[in-house]
């Protein structure tokens, strides 16, 4: 038995008393974290010893296999966590286990409100560390010996977690620290090695140090120590030492996927923030991809200790298909979700990993167009949420977008903005697009006629998200986006002088007729004008530059929101035979019927529906009857 010398009793620093009280009273619903904290401290002690041994190898030589051992003595009602790490001297024990020597301590205590729920969150932020032992123990015994000290320089610390602790020098044969917890009555369920093993594999599986527990024979006698964690964390190894198969297997374990991932990226970031990320893009979409509330697949580790699943703050919503983990060296072990939300370290990790994911997708698009297309077909619609959510990376996201276009006239979205820019004539200064309900409605919209005639490519968008996307994308590589169904069409330098002059003349000669249409249609339209866009259709409607686009209005209506009524600009094609015939009708009442019919038709082509379809049908029938009577 250890020789007892110089027993002393010391009072805890006031803050320690407060912390202990708070912890016992507010962390009762999360008791198991005590083991994570103590095992993590033991692992840190091993890390520190390894570091010290770099300059003094004698420190480690006699017992070089660093490990943590966890065992239960049911009869005594104790749990022991024992390490052969760096240990502590008497002075270190005094300051480490009697005071709180953290910066911000007084600020922390001044924030405490007495409200247990709120305070428990704050404690999480502060880091409970060693003192969490008292969540499950009513008395704690620490026996420690610093590496490099003599066997008679061991120190024993004991406390009931109230006002004070006892300290004495002891004889300890080996360096390192044993922590013996006398388990409380209400925590007796932790006196079960298989339960503890479960907690260790949950939180500490990837610690680099072996965490050992006793193997027991049928009589319950310990026969040997066996590691219960897998040992070395994959992501802590050098990239060059890890085979593709290992990365793939690891992905399957963490993502619970049966298939290989599409691609991955493993990065060690050093500098102001230190963290490692291992991020995967799966091949297939999860069944709940469309649920924006879906949990995110990023696990957070702090110094290789598992902290939480689905750390949403580490990845933006539009990259919610990414799986993997991040391991920070800077966050406190007891970081909570609330703290992650507003934290410099998390923000840096999030922005770094977002760039990584965008970077790996860009690389895939460049190196393997076919695989990228597969990715786009699976996750493209989610990525389209990006420009609205992440302004800082808008251009990078835009680079990854794919569209259908008039260049290929096929449903599959394969055209990148770069390909569009490359093809466009020098004089073109805008990227033209159309958003409609379906690919066909976009492809056949009359507003495209002039573009087709002039051979100007137009992007054909028809997903629900597209209007939302385009309302956030204003330009790409200094070229503005322009909807072909909005505003006054100005093809700029794409139109030659002669054509412009012709157009002006046409507008002049048709001026009177435009007025006639305006008075016939009254407040059903915003205005009437001669079109620049149509070649084969008689008329179309467009929205004014500052009004809400048709698709946006539809989206809002579908979401049950009140949408201000948008009046359209009605554009006529004076060169179209039908328009020419209509303007030759002299009877104003009849002219008005025809004018209304042309407007309804144009509205149908653009909106896909009419406010009063029955009236349209009645009018059409009436006019058809008149025509067949002739
Ligand atoms: N098993 C151990 N071996 C050696 N030193 C230890 C051990 N456990 C704790 N210590 C010392 O006690 C100090 C206080 O531990 P505690 O767990 O309260 O805080 P921390 O580990 O510094 O912070 P946190 O746990 O919040 O990250 C540690 O910094 C370490 O120096």
From TrEMBL:
Main location: cytoplasm
GO molecular function, one term: ATP binding
One GO CC annotation: cytoplasm
SMART domains with a match to the protein in the record: HATPase_c
Positions contributing to ATP binding: 37, 41, 83, 88, 96, 102-104, 125-130, 177, 337
The keyword ATP-binding appears for this protein: yes
Region (C): 555-630
Taxonomy, superkingdom: Bacteria
InterPro entries with a match to the protein in the record: HATPase_C_sf (IPR036890), HATPase_dom (IPR003594), Heat_shock_protein_90_CS (IPR019805), HSP90_C (IPR037196), Hsp90_fam (IPR001404), Hsp90_N (IPR020575), Ribosomal_Su5_D2-typ_SF (IPR020568)
Ranges for domain Histidine kinase/HSP90-like ATPase: 30-173
Any Pfam family the entry gives: HATPase_c_3
PROSITE patterns: HSP90 (PS00298)
Chain positions covered by the region annotation A: 1-337
SUPFAM superfamilies assigned: ATPase domain of HSP90 chaperone/DNA topoisomerase II/histidine kinase, HSP90 C-terminal domain, Ribosomal protein S5 domain 2-like
Record's keyword terms, sorted: ATP-binding, Chaperone, Cytoplasm, Nucleotide-binding, Stress response
Location of the protein in the cell: Cytoplasm
PANTHER family per UniProt: HEAT SHOCK PROTEIN 90 FAMILY MEMBER
Role according to the record: Molecular chaperone. Has ATPase activity.
Name of this protein: Chaperone protein HtpG
The organism of origin for this protein: Pseudidiomarina piscicola
Gene transcribed to yield this protein: htpG
């Amino acid at each position: 038995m250890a020789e007892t010398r110089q027993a002393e009793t010391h009072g805890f620093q006031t803050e320690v008393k407060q912390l202990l009280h708070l912890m016992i009273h507010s962390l009762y619903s999360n008791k198991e974290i005590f083991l994570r904290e103590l095992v993590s401290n033991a692992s840190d002690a091993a890390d520190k010893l390894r570091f010290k041994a770099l300059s003094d190898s004698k420190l480690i030589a006699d017992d070089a296999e660093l490990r943590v051992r966890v065992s239960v003595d049911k009869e005594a009602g104790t749990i022991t966590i024992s390490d052969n790490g760096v240990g502590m001297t008497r002075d270190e024990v005094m300051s480490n286990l009697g005071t709180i020597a953290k910066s911000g301590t007084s600020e922390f205590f001044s924030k405490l409100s007495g409200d247990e729920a709120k305070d428990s969150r704050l404690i999480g932020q502060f880091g409970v560390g060693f003192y969490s032992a008292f969540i499950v123990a009513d008395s704690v015994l620490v026996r420690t010996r610093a590496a490099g000290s003599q066997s008679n320089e061991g120190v024993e610390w004991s406390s009931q977690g109230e006002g004070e602790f006892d300290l004495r020098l002891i004889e300890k044969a080996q360096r390192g620290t044993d922590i013996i917890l006398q388990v409380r009555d209400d925590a007796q369920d932790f006196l079960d090695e298989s339960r503890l093993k479960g907690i260790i594999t949950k939180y500490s599986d990837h610690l680099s140090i072996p965490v050992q527990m006793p193997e027991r024979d049928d009589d319950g006698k310990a026969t040997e120590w066996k590691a219960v964690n897998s040992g070395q964390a994959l992501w802590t190894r050098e990239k060059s030492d890890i085979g593709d198969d290992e990365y793939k297997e690891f992905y399957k374990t963490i993502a619970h996927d049966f298939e290989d991932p599409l691609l991955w990226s493993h990065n060690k970031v050093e500098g102001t923030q230190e963290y490692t990320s291992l991020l995967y893009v799966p091949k297939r979409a999860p069944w709940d991809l469309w649920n924006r509330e879906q949990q995110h697949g990023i696990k957070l580790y702090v110094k290789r200790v598992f902290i939480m699943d689905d750390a949403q703050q580490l990845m933006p919503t539009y990259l919610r298909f990414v799986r993997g983990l991040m391991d920070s060296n800077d966050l406190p072990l007891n970081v909570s979700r609330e703290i992650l939300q507003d934290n410099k370290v998390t923000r840096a990790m999030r922005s770094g990993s977002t760039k990584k994911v965008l970077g790996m997708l860009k690389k895939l698009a460049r190196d393997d167009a076919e695989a990228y297309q597969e990715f786009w077909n699976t996750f493209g619609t989610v990525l389209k949420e990006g420009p609205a959510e992440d302004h800082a990376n808008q251009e990078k996201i835009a680079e990854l977008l794919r569209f259908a276009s008039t260049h290929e006239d096929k449903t599959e979205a394969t055209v990148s903005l770069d390909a569009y820019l490359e093809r466009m004539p020098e004089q073109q200064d805008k990227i033209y697009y159309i958003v409609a309900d379906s690919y066909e409605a976009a492809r056949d919209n009359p507003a495209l006629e002039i573009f087709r005639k002039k051979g100007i490519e137009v992007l054909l968008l028809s997903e629900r998200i597209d209007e939302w996307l385009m309302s956030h994308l204003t330009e790409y590589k200094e070229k503005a986006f322009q909807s072909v169904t909005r505003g006054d069409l100005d093809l700029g330098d794409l139109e030659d002088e002669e054509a412009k002059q012709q157009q002006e003349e046409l507008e002049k000669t048709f001026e009177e007729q435009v007025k006639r249409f305006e008075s016939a249609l009254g407040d059903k339209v915003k205005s009437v004008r001669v079109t620049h866009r149509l070649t084969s259709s008689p008329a179309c409607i467009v929205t004014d530059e500052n009004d809400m686009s048709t698709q946006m209005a539809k989206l809002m209506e579908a979401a049950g929101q009140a949408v201000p009524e948008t009046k359209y600009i009605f554009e006529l094609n004076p060169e179209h035979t039908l328009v020419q015939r209509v303007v030759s009708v002299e009877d104003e009442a009849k002219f008005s019927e025809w004018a209304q019919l042309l407007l309804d038709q144009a509205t149908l082509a653009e909106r896909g529906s009419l406010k009063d379809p029955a009236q349209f049908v009645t009018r059409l029938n009436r006019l058809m009857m008149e025509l067949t009577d002739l």
